[in-house]
Amino acid sequence: MKVSIIGAGNVGATCAQFIAMKGIVSEIVLLDIAEGLAAGKAMDLAQSMPALGFDTLIYPEVDDYSKTANSEVIVVTSGQPRKPGMSREELVAVNVSIVESVIKNAIKFSPKAVFVIVTNPLDTMTLVALKASGLPKNKIIGMGTILDSNRFRYFLSKKLQKPINEIEAMVIGGHGDTTMIPIKELATYKGIPISEILTNEAFEEVIKETMVGGATLTKLLGTSAWYGPGAAVTELVDTIVNDKKKLMPNSVYLQGEFGIDGVCIGVPCIIGKHGVEGILEIKLSDSDKIKFINSANAIKEVNGLI
Ligand SMILES: NC(=O)c1ccc[n+]([C@@H]2O[C@H](COP(=O)([O-])OP(=O)(O)OC[C@H]3O[C@@H](n4cnc5c(N)ncnc54)[C@H](O)[C@@H]3O)[C@@H](O)[C@H]2O)c1
Ligand SMILES: O=C(O)C[C@H](O)C(=O)O
């Protein structure tokens, strides 16, 4: 089993690290256009294996896509990250041509792969990838709201002072500071609705923290995050490769679901070896329905720039 990761920067290399450490596949190809970067990261990672007890083969490549041939999954982490003070949407002009060229190169050698898109602005780049690939919509998955859901769980766990793994929560909508929708009704602690435990005011604070979770990290780090993103991609890749049929929110192309047409946006979907194997049209509150329509419209506006 082979996964190729295109873009060996902070997120791409962390995906390689976590995927290797979890032993999800036997081979990882780490490709970048920057001379030396993929080679250095792959060598460094390989030298960590004896101490940590894993032995995935990691092949570095500089822009030679033939080595990615017959990958089960292609992860696209190539492109610029934002700097403090920027929105993700401001990256659209610089990243659109990168994603287009990466997809066109990768698909020549792995026409049957499922593509996981990570580059921002996520929902627009997922649409760019869908169009550039010509693949059926189930094969193109944008990873953003898995990460947002994990951040929602983190801020809830901090507020409740309870272990994060006892908390379930989901974010849908766009992967943007103003477009994501943390769903109150689906947040639970040990199965108990969190709305029964937290005051409305405290819950709203958590929602605000979640929505700017990526911006907060960007301010602290001077560039955007990588551990949370790398872990979320790893969970998604594991779910695809091992055909887990798991329910997880991802950006997928909608054609009428939730009353929305022609955009990629985060919705709960069943993920397996074919990629998106179903979309679950959960019942939204009236206010979340409005937020979802606004989110889709905001994504459409950015899509208008490509
Ligand atoms: N969807 C998410 O949840 C999420 C999370 C974190 C980061 N991101 C996005 O992922 C992207 C990468 O972030 P990062 O922190 O790893 O950035 P980074 O700058 O550390 O790495 C990006 C890498 O892409 C490479 N690259 C650029 N053009 C390329 C091309 N044509 N072919 C191959 N490689 C190319 C660069 O050389 C660089 O090494 C950014 O757009 C960022 O906004 C998304
Ligand atoms: O915040 C960013 O720009 C990167 C990524 O989308 C994230 O949420 O960490």
How would a textbook summarize the main sheet?
Answer: 6 strands, parallel
Mean pLDDT reading:
98
Q: Major sheet: order of its strands?
A: 3-2-1-4-5-6
Distance between the termini: 34 Å
Query: Which ranges are low-confidence, i.e. pLDDT below 50, for 5 or more consecutive residues?
Result: none
The total of helices stands at 10
Question: Quick summary of this structure?
Answer:
The protein has ten helices and 14 strands.
Plain-language structure description:
The protein has helices at 10-21, 37-46, 49-52, 92-109, 122-133, 145-160, 200-211, 213-221, 227-241, 286-303, and strands at residues 2-6, 27-32, 57-62, 73-76, 114-117, 140-142, 167-168, 171-173, 180-182, 188-189, 192-193, 246-255, 261-272, 275-279. The protein contains ten helices and 14 strands. It has 306 residues and is of the alpha/beta class. The model has no long low-confidence stretch (mean pLDDT 98). It has a domain at 2-142: NAD(P)-binding Rossmann-like Domain (Rossmann fold, 3-Layer(aba) Sandwich), CATH 3.40.50. Helix 1 crosses helix 9 (227-241), helix 4 packs parallel to helix 5 and helix 6 packs across helix 7. The protein binds nicotinamide-adenine-dinucleotide and (2S)-2-hydroxybutanedioic acid (LMR). (2S)-2-hydroxybutanedioic acid (LMR) binds at residues 81-82, 88, 120, 147, 175, 214, 217-218, 224-225, 229. The active site is at residue 175.
